Amino acid sequence: MSCILGIESSCDETAAAVVDGRLRVRSSVVASQYELHAEYGGVVPEIASRAHVERILPVVRKALDEAGVTIDQIDAVAAGVRPGLIGSLLVGSSLAKAVAFALHRPFHAIDHVAAHLFAGLLRGGSDDDHFAPTVPRPALGLVVSGGHTSLFRIEGACSATLLGRTIDDAVGEAFDKAAVMLGLPHPGGPNLERCAAGGNPDALKFARPQLPNPLDFSLSGLKTKLLYEVRGVPQGRGAQSTFMRSSQDLSESRRADLAASFQKAAVAQVVDRLERAAERESPSALLVGGGVVANTHLRGELAAFCSRRRIQLVVPARAHCVDNAAMIAGYAALRRAEGDVGDDLSMPAEPVSLLARGTKPKRVH
Ligand code: KG4
Ligand code: ZN
Question: Cβ(83) to ligand 1 under 6 A?
């Protein structure tokens, strides 16, 4: 069975994985950098790329060891080349190209957003079966991560059309900013979920934004509403304006109520857009991915939505929602199953996703 080495270094996770041609994850190693960025309340690009340089070789070696393969048993090498922090992307993609060049193996330049989209097709289990990697269709695809919130019609592993996207913040980004407003530590999304666990989700009501494209998302109104609730409406104008309160004035129970209410509103907006898209597209499957899909409330609502509509839900294990390299290798395996033979080594690392931008709807890179 063919083996693909995947490498991911787009933001603050250094990751490597080995996945076989039947999308079976043979190893997946992720070294996260939370502790390096915690004191700054967010990812510092220069610190991230330096940490990738230090960690990438041990992480790749560990992935090969855990998969029980040597580097020359690898049949293809895949790396996330966009979107992401450019210095970080260069570390993983340069290593992947070097390995592919040295071993005379194909190199797959992977769009991280596309890899999130298909991560639910990754599998555990034994390799003595006859599973053929295929993408269910007609399908809708949803990526909800720290950088992207996008809805797609999926025609295959190499073809997806953008139907809607956020016009301001991504859902994960909004979770992270809401966590800061509530005085919760980095990483914001998981900490906000934890804080929300004991709260009343109906304590604060948020309006649902209506946009010219009914499949687009907007999170900025939710953030502003939460900010004013926590700190009061600012007094004065422009740079002179001041808040009356701080997050430290919140009681623990009020903080939990606001976290739960924010989480409920953000997830409700996602499901609302899915309802509209399902009405229009009549899909038989929904593929979801991205860090926010690790959120238990969102997972529950996605399951309920799919069971209401009798749609197959293709959802990754939590470990494959947040950034990882198994999704990079798995997506390369899917593309290979559809006849893709790889990309030129001159394919550059780029900060922006072509897929999420909708600029190349017929060919997903
Ligand atoms: O996919 P990902 O690991 O990186 C990007 O491609 O952006 O997503 C990271 C995002 C962060 O904004 C993080 O706060 C959010 O996913 N996230 C969560 C949870 N786990 C991660 N948001 C809400 N609840 C969670 N449990
Ligand atoms: Zn990601």
Answer: no
Q: How many CB atoms lie within 10 A of CB 338?
A: 13
pLDDT in tens, 147-175: 999 999 999 888 899 999 999 999 999 99
**CB of 322 sitting under 6 A from ligand 1:** yes
Check if 80 has its Cβ closer than 6 Å to any atom of ligand 1: no
- Domain of residue 51 covers 3-122+319-337
C-alpha of residue 291 to centroid of ligand 2, in Å: 6
Say whether both 25 and 159 belong to one domain. Answer: no
Q: Are residues 325 and 304 in the same domain?
A: no
For ligand 1, say whether the CB of 315 is within 6 Å of any of its atoms. no
Say if residue 362's pLDDT is above 50.
Answer: no
**What's the domain count of the chain?**
2
For residues 185 and 328, membership in a common domain is answered with: no
Ion ligand 2: protein residues whose beta carbon lies under 5 Å: 145, 323
| E strand intervals along the chain | 3-8, 13-20, 25-32, 76-82, 107-111, 139-144, 149-156, 159-165, 285-289, 312-314
Comparison of pLDDT for 361 and 55, the residue scoring more: 55
What is the per-residue pLDDT across 275-334, written as a single tens digit (0 to 9) for each? 999 999 999 999 999 999 999 999 999 999 999 999 999 999 999 999 999 999 999 999
**132: exposed, middle or buried (Cβ count in 10 Å: 0-12, 13-18, 19+):** exposed
Whether 356 maps to a domain, the answer reads no
Our answer on whether the CB atom of 176 is closer than 6 Å to any ligand 1 atom is yes
